[in-house]
Write a structure and sequence with these properties.
With 582 residues, this protein is mostly helical. The protein has a domain of 132 residues. 49% of the residues lie in helices and 7% in strands. It is built from 23 helices and 15 strands. Strands 3-4-5 form a three-stranded antiparallel β-sheet. A three-stranded antiparallel β-sheet has the order 8-11-12. The protein has a three-stranded antiparallel β-sheet with strand order 13-14-15. The chain is globular. The termini are far apart.
């Protein structure tokens, strides 16, 4: 076996806990989809433009037999299999991706939900109707054979149908689903939402946490923990307390995962506080981005490769894969190879957990369990104090990620710096107004097409010039909680900017996108793959804003979309009407 290959495999099998040198059992033991020579040889042959293509392909036969045939092939070529031979082996042993899912038409989809009647602008109302119809295009259900022969698939079986993000993301994803759920509830589709929640709850019961997405190769990592908030949205809409009662312990189990595996103590001014971070204690390349991770690791010293791969997985767990937000420090702070996600205490993660603790306290109170309600009330209280001491900056009026290595805050701009407003985890009633001053000081309001993910253009997809729907929501609904009319007006204007961007690009392309380039007013770019259409969470956020401001938002089409000769006629007609009125 070539020397480089020998370095790659043993640590996957051990699931090495970096830094502690303690071996954890790997969450996924598949020698085809998660680690091993077959995965390495196929992905490094680069048969497909996107590494995700291969690990999403079902097997055409028994995994043991496929591995045996591969071992024989590898031995025949001394583990240096020609690309054409690898291609033929894959064609013989695997099926085309996507065959494990069927399209699904949601049974509770209805023609005209109330949301449409609350939108004043006719063009926005017609557009919202198209967004509502997109749920029918994004519905999927898993074929029964995935449940009866799970060893042949990377897809994790889910009993209930669901809505996917779109594009290359044909399975459901954790944090995307929160904004999808909000959109579905505005589309009056609670049965679909309940099924999605049941899928997530089943994952917690089976694995103890919710993986990044519904694939076995995502089992090593989670994503921003928003399950409790999804349950809150569903219960608020349906008053289904029986469902909450049946599943409250599973919600608690998921929060236990974050407390047990992603918490740490931070000392500030001689006092210790417990907060959370994104942290994946497993090395090895990500299977869905395998060749990119191997090639990136070739640019760093050999003894740093496992750490690099673990940090890439932590960045993926954050949902921000990837951003200069995680690149601080290191010999080349502008490069992805300098990623150090686990060395930062993120504002948004702790805001999400703070919100979940408050919701759990409220849930238990409603269910009559005062002991558990008090437990979560105290947890939230402790986290609020920790966020105030470690993350809050009174002078700037925002919260900042805390760098564990330097003991300092990262004062760069990210929309997540205001996530505690959205999550309701602040005690100062003036916090939204202080946040507005912070946005003005950072000149964020000059961006007229959306709030940028950062102010650094690194080429990564979670940086300038890209803007993402969930980050708009964090800021807009956070500012909207202000008692100040001016701050609330800025929240509306930011909503107007984002709706116009979505609407204008849709008018040109007839598609919704996962991210947008707010410099050029077009679909976004950068990162590891082409920009994707669909797109679940963008649709959901657009519906949230249309629901919140439907009577005020405008499309700008009344004049702007007219041809020049029509515009001249319209202006002449306007002048004549003005003269007649005198």
């Amino acid at each position: 076996m070539p020397g480089k290959m020998r370095l790659l495999f043993p640590l996957f099998l051990l699931g090495l806990v970096l830094g502690t040198q303690q071996a954890l059992p790997p969450p996924c033991d598949s020698q085809i989809y998660c680690h091993g020579e077959l995965l390495h040889q196929v992905q490094m042959a680069k048969l497909y433009r996107d590494d995700k293509e291969f690990v999403d392909m079902p097997m055409s036969g028994d995994p043991a037999q496929i591995l045996q045939r591969f071992d024989e092939l590898a031995a025949a070529y001394n583990h240096s299999i020609p690309r054409d031979e690898i291609k033929a082996f894959v064609s013989q042993s695997f099926l085309v991706k996507g065959q494990e899912l069927d399209p699904w038409l949601p049974e509770d989809w209805r023609e005209r939900p109330q949301l449409l009647y609350n939108i004043s602008d006719p063009s926005l109302r017609a557009w919202a109707e198209k967004l509502h119809k997109l749920w029918k295009d994004l519905g999927k259900k898993v074929k029964p054979e995935v449940g009866s022969q799970p060893e042949r698939f990377s897809l994790i079986y889910s009993e209930h149908p669901f809505i996917v993000p779109g594009g290359r993301f044909v399975e459901f994803y954790y944090w995307d689903s929160y904004w999808v759920v909000e959109g579905l509830l505005l589309s009056e589709m609670p049965r679909t939402v309940k099924g999605m929640l049941q899928n997530f709850l089943a994952l917690v019961q089976r694995y103890g946490h919710i993986p990044n997405g519904a694939r076995v190769y995502y089992l090593q990592r989670s994503q921003p923990p928003l399950l409790t908030l999804m349950m809150h949205s569903y219960v608020t809409h349906t008053q289904d307390l029986a469902f909450l009662r049946d599943n409250i312990k599973t919600l608690a189990l998921e929060l236990d995962f974050w407390a047990r595996n992603r918490s740490l103590s931070v000392s500030v001014a001689g006092k210790s506080y417990v907060l959370n971070r994104y942290h994946v204690p497993y090395g090895g390349p990500r299977p869905e981005s395998y060749s990119k991770d191997v090639e990136l690791a070739d640019t760093v010293p050999e003894d740093r490769r496992e750490t690099l791969w673990a940090e890439l997985k932590a960045g993926a767990e954050s949902g921000w894969d990837f951003s200069s937000r995680w690149f601080l420090g290191g010999p080349n702070p502008d490069l992805l190879s300098s990623i150090r996600t686990s060395k930062l205490v993120p504002v948004d993660l702790n805001a999400f957990l703070c919100q979940a603790e408050e919701l759990m306290s409220n849930f238990y109170s409603r269910l009559g369990d005062t002991s558990q309600a008090e437990k979560y009330r105290k947890l939230r209280e402790q986290r609020m104090a920790a966020m105030q001491a470690v993350l809050w900056d009174e002078e700037q009026g925002a919260w900042f990620d805390y760098d564990l290595d330097t003991g300092k805050k990262n004062t760069e701009f990210y929309p997540t710096n205001l996530a505690p407003l959205w999550a309701g985890c602040f005690s100062d009633p003036e916090a939204p107004d202080k946040a507005l001053k912070y946005l003005e000081a950072k000149q964020i309001l000059k961006y007229k097409r959306g709030i940028p993910s950062s102010l650094k253009n690194s080429g990564q997809q979670w940086d300038l010039p890209n803007a993402w729907a969930p980050l708009q929501d964090l800021v807009i609904r956070g500012l909207a909680k202000s008692r100040s009319p001016r701050t609330r007006e800025v929240a509306f204007q930011l909503a107007q900017n984002w709706i116009r961007t979505n609407f204008d690009v849709y008018a040109k392309t007839s598609a919704m996108y996962e991210k947008y380039d707010i410099d050029k007013g077009q679909p976004g770019g950068g990162g590891e793959y082409e920009v994707q259409t669909g797109f679940g969470w963008t649709n959901g956020v657009a519906m949230i804003l249309l629901d919140l401001y439907g009577d005020q938002l405008t499309s700008g089409t009344q004049m702007a979309f007219l041809e020049p000769h029509c515009l001249a006629s319209a202006l002449l007609l306007s002048l004549l009407l003005s003269l007649l009125a005198q």
